[in-house]
Design brief:
Elements (H helix, E strand, L loop, with lengths): L15 E7 L2 H10 L3 H6 E7 L5 H13 L9 E7 L9 H10 L3 E6 L3 H5 L12 H9 L11 H9 L4 H14 L5 H6 L3 E2 L1 H9 L2
Parallel strand pairs: 1-2, 1-3, 3-4
Antiparallel strand pairs: 4-5
Helix pairs in contact: 1-7, 3-4, 8-10
Length: about 210
C-alpha cells in the first residue's frame, strides 16, 4: 500500500501492524478481546478504535483522519474498516463506504444485516434472512437471559470468544459452511445473512 509506509525492520516491527476501525462499540470490544490472545500478540500489533460516527462512510473517513493526526502521520501495514449493512439500511450508502475504502487502499470487513450476526455464529449456524438488525441482536441476547455485556472486553473474551478462543475458530468454520468463501462487498450487500468478518478473524487466531 503506497500510503502506508513501512517501519524499519526491528524486532517489534516483525509483527504486522494493523489498524482496525469499527463503526460501533460492540465491534471494537470484540476485536479488543481478540487483541489479548497470545497468538495474536505474537504475530500482530493491533490498534483498535471505534469511529462512532453513525454510518459506514464516516467510519472510513475516521480511519483516514486517524492516520493523519499529529506531526508525523501514523503508519500501518494494513487498515481495516469494520461495518455492516444494517436493516433498515443507513444513509449514506454501504457501497459508497466500500468505494471510499478502496480508494484509500483500506480493507473492509462487512456483515449483513449487522455485526451481531458474526457473534451469533460463535454459537450456531445462521442461514435464515433477518428483516431487521434488531432481530439478530435479540436472538443473540436470548443466549444470556440475565443480560449480555457486549461492551465489556473481559465479558466478550470469556462468553463469546471462549476458552483459548475456540469459539472464534468455530465461528470461522460456520461462516464458511453457511456463506462460502471469497465473499465480496457486493455479494454481502445482496445476501442476507452473510459476513466476511471470518476472513480477518481467521488470520488473527489461527495457529
Amino acid at each position: 500500500m503506497a500510503a502506508l509506509r513501512r517501519r524499519p525492520l526491528t524486532r517489534t516491527a516483525l509483527r504486522r501492524t494493523l489498524l482496525i476501525v469499527c463503526e460501533g462499540h460492540t465491534e471494537a470490544t470484540y476485536f479488543s478481546a481478540l487483541k489479548s490472545h497470545p497468538l495474536v500478540r505474537e504475530k500482530f500489533h493491533l490498534t483498535v478504535r471505534c469511529a462512532n460516527g453513525g454510518n459506514q462512510v464516516e467510519t472510513v473517513r475516521w480511519a483516514d483522519s486517524f492516520m493523519r493526526i499529529g506531526a508525523t502521520p501514523r503508519s500501518f501495514d494494513e487498515v481495516w474498516c469494520v461495518f455492516d449493512l444494517e436493516q433498515p439500511p443507513k444513509s449514506p450508502s454501504f457501497h459508497e463506504a466500500v468505494a471510499l475504502a478502496a480508494r484509500r487502499k483500506f480493507s473492509v470487513s462487512a456483515s449483513n444485516p449487522c455485526f451481531e450476526l458474526w457473534l451469533l455464529l460463535h454459537f450456531q449456524d445462521c442461514k435464515k434472512p433477518y428483516l431487521a438488525s434488531l432481530s439478530v441482536s435479540q436472538e443473540l441476547g436470548a443466549l444470556w437471559p440475565n443480560g449480555a455485556e457486549l461492551n465489556q472486553v473481559e465479558w466478550v473474551r470469556r462468553h463469546i470468544c471462549g476458552q483459548d478462543f475456540d469459539r472464534c475458530r468455530q465461528a470461522v468454520e460456520r461462516a464458511k459452511r453457511c456463506y462460502g468463501s471469497g465473499l465480496s462487498a457486493q455479494t454481502i450487500a445482496q445476501t442476507n445473512p452473510s459476513t466476511d468478518v471470518s476472513l480477518l478473524v481467521e488470520r488473527l487466531v489461527r495457529a
